[in-house]
Specification:
Elements (H helix, E strand, L loop, with lengths): L7 H4 L6 E5 L5 H17 L3 E3 L19 E4 L4 H10 L3 E3 L12 E4 L1 H13 L6 E6 L3 H15 L5 E6 L13 H10 L4 E5 L2 H13 L8 E5 L6 H4 L5 E4 L2 H16 L8 E4 L3 E3 L12 H12 L7 H8 L3 H12 L3 H19 L4 H7 L5 H12 L3 H9 L2
Parallel strand pairs: 1-2, 1-3, 3-4, 5-11, 6-7, 6-8, 8-9, 9-10
Antiparallel strand pairs: 10-12
């Protein structure tokens, strides 16, 4: 967003759109959405952006008499939807909440992609039992729950679910019956991976485990469906979380609003953005395997993600022959050691592309690929994009 307020004369320039952002600033998600919008405006603006510091549950509305050209909002209630409809302005909804009678174009996270990413995170650590801690009466949480259950069923197993009544919005009550929650977790086959909607729900799973003397992450691996850099690191053990592509959502919402304000009519009703990756912290940082050779092999692969090595090096570290190692990988994990090495190197490359400005040759070297050409070929085969195109798409800069 602009580093200084616009001059009074520019505020009256009819050629500069006036856009209201009805998005909470109290969460990492909301601030990153706004940053993504700002990225778009820096490239294609100028726009006059109007945003107030607001909490998640505070009422968001434009001031009476405000005259603008468009709105990007987390449309969270029918009352809010009605107010926005009455403005007779282009509106883009960046919430996963679906409200009947309101057809604002929506840009939000793809829950099936999130479910697949979360399940892969557990499976890659050897988990074979899965559960979802849910919230009653919250449709968008139910959407994520159903997506995760469906993803789990594709592996031929069932997903256990416990749903509790939340307070306002999608937060469990602070006086939640932790003993009851702990009893449910104790009833699950161990080790188990549990996905929750957000950091508040994941926090309560941690507390229930502590009350029930269950080890996290060795017996219960806990993953928040959204990463909050404050809440996820504030608890003990620290929480792993799904990194939502919030900047991309904000950027895409701004692009969509720009088209609507220009009078374009071919507007998609829904745009789904996959999450970026998993921010791994202590709550899932474990290997749920009973095979000591596999544990040594997987630990070696992850510890050496920044350098090139061969399957024979992994077998030597695990203390078994290459043939035995390959057979155990296929029997337990359903993939080969070579594919696991490639996956870990690709994850390392994705992390460097997202979080650093390293040139592509340096990314290749620091992700164990040895050459830019090898990285290019492997990355294009796996993602369908070149490393540079992937970096641009994820960052939306």
């Amino acid at each position: 967003m602009p580093s200084r307020p616009p001059s009074p004369s520019s505020l009256h320039n009819p050629d500069i759109p006036r856009v209201a952002l009805l998005i909470e600033t109290s969460t990492s998600w909301g601030r990153r959405i706004i940053e993504g919008i700002g990225n778009y405006v820096r490239k294609f603006g100028p726009w006059h952006l109007f945003v107030d510091a607001r909490g998640l549950q505070e009422r968001q509305r434009v001031p009476p008499g405000w005259r603008g050209d468009g709105v990007i909002a987390r449309v969270s209630s029918a009352a809010m939807g009605k107010e926005l409809q009455e403005l007779r302005l282009p509106v883009v909804n960046i919430s996963g909440i679906v409200l009947q009678d309101f057809n604002f174009p929506q840009v939000t996270t793809s829950q099936p992609d999130l479910a697949d990413l979360a399940l892969s995170h557990f499976v890659d650590r050897g988990f074979r039992n899965f559960a979802y801690f849910s919230l009653l009466g919250v449709p968008y949480v139910a959407t994520q729950q159903q997506a995760f259950m469906q993803a789990v069923r594709t592996r031929g197993v069932e997903c256990s679910v416990l749903a509790v009544k939340p307070i306002a919005g999608a937060e469990p009550a602070w006086n939640l019956d932790l003993a009851k929650l702990g009893a449910w977790i104790q009833s699950l086959p161990k080790p188990v991976g549990i996905l929750t909607w957000n950091a508040g729900s994941a926090r309560d799973v941690l507390y229930a485990c502590q009350l029930s003397n269950l080890l996290v992450p060795e017996e219960v691996s806990v993953l928040s469906g959204s990463d909050d850099d404050l809440l996820c690191t504030f608890v003990q053990p620290s929480l792993s979380g799904v990194l939502i592509a919030a900047e991309q959502i904000g950027h895409a919402a701004a692009e969509l609003l720009d088209r609507m304000m220009a009078g374009k009519t071919k507007i998609p009703p829904t745009t789904l953005i996959p999450p970026v990756n998993i921010v791994t912290r202590r709550s899932t940082d474990t290997l749920a395997l009973g095979d000591s050779a596999l544990i040594k092999a997987l630990s070696f692969i992850r510890d050496n993600a920044a350098r090139p090595f061969r399957v024979s090096d992994v077998a030597h570290c695990a203390g078994v022959s290459r043939r035995v190692l390959e057979r155990r990988f296929e029997q337990v994990l359903g993939r080969s050691p070579a594919s696991e090495i490639r996956r870990v190197h690709l994850d390392r490359a994705r992390e460097l592309l997202i979080e650093t400005d390293l040139p592509i040759p340096d990314v290749a070297e620091s992700a164990g690929f040895g050459s830019s050409e090898y990285l290019f070929a492997a990355f294009k085969a796996h993602t369908g994009k070149t490393p540079l195109a992937y970096r641009k798409a994820v960052r939306s800069r």
